[in-house]
From TrEMBL:
NCBIfam families: F_box_assoc_1. It comes from the Eukaryota. The lineage of its organism: Eukaryota, Viridiplantae, Streptophyta, Embryophyta, Tracheophyta. SUPFAM superfamilies: F-box domain. SMART domains: FBOX. InterPro entries: F-box-assoc_dom_typ1 (IPR006527), F-box-assoc_interact_dom (IPR017451), F-box-like_dom_sf (IPR036047), F-box_dom (IPR001810), SCF_F-box_component (IPR050796). Signal peptide: none annotated. Residues 31-77 form the F-box domain. This is F-box/kelch-repeat protein.
Amino acid sequence: MGAHAIVKVVFGAATKWSKLLSLLLPPPLRPPTLPILPPELIELILLRLPARSLLKFKSVCKSWKTLISSSDFIKNQVQLSIMAEPAISELHLVYSNIFRFNNNEIGFIPIQSLLENLSFGIEVVYFAVEGYNVNITGSCNGFLCLTNLPSFDFKVRLLNPCTGLASEWLTLHSEYDQQQRPLISTFGFGYDHVNDKFKILTVVKNSTKIYTFGAHSWITVQDIPLYTLDWDGTFVTGTGTLNWLATKIASSITYPVNQTAIVVLSFNFGNESYGQIALPNVEGGMIHREPVLVTLRNSLCVCHGYQCSGWDLWMMKEYGNEDSWTRMLVIPHEELIPHAIAIRPLHIMENDLLLVLVRRPAYGKCSQLVVYNPTNKGDKLGYPVINYYSYDDMPDYDDPLRCFRLHRESLVSPSHYGLKTDHMWL
């Protein structure tokens, strides 16, 4: 039962009970016409509503506004809607244009409206964000982590698109290489649920450091023990971990490669420790195409080429337990876009439809969003390529330079974590 249905049932039951008491009791003992619910029950109901609905309900009365604005309520709502019952929170596909200089636009695609209008393609809502070279480098608990990479310094800010609240730009690094680029080789954004802090991991000049938002503090931790294949880490909600595909070999990998050559390297924000997770066993023990690490349904997943004929999608049902790797799908090449060279699963819907970003060989506009139905093989719907805003003096870049993130809405505010906050009219 959805959140709005729960509210309707509870208030409906309370109204019927109030009317029944009015008939049975004498006038002095009759309840008021409108049902009076205990504050605890009201809070439980409100906790199960989407963030945008809660923003509207702030205007119902002063007590509701105070409750909905409190940091404890917001943290509980995040815990429930994003971790326990993710269907409650509104879901968006967001993206930025990597390496487009002077870019300050973010594209938002509501997943629900996307699915409800399959025959009409994608309608993208663009928002201008204060800053320059704005890129989305993480999404966690309702925050987007925005950076200005590549640039002559490294700045970061947290933005809640639902409320329009954002922290001020913070300069984190100002060390450059000979080409005047920040010396950052690895990056990751996530939430430390043990200490209730949002944090960033960076590797600068082979030194691994953790930045804590609000405390504005840096600590140096043990260096990353392996060579990461991904620049940005994949955060897994509820675990406090960043994850990268990694190898012991410094040189680039040539595929096919033995599956033991690549592992999942994890970093735990809570205890500041590393771990390694073996990839799932595949038939023949060989990975034929570059693997991709993603999160689906709040679980760590890996997708890689299988015998040059398709892709395997594996999900780790219990984080950290290598025995819990479960093969979810085998997707033949011909059932997506012909001649595709890589895919990145973005989201699994409740009906098991899979939203996938598909890359084709590098000619023209070479990426496409596809909804794939694994139940009816070959049943797919390819959306038209999302166009950039075009600039007369600047050619468009190809689609692989778009960075897509899945974003769940919440009411979390930068001010709750000691950050100076600006309001951005999105």
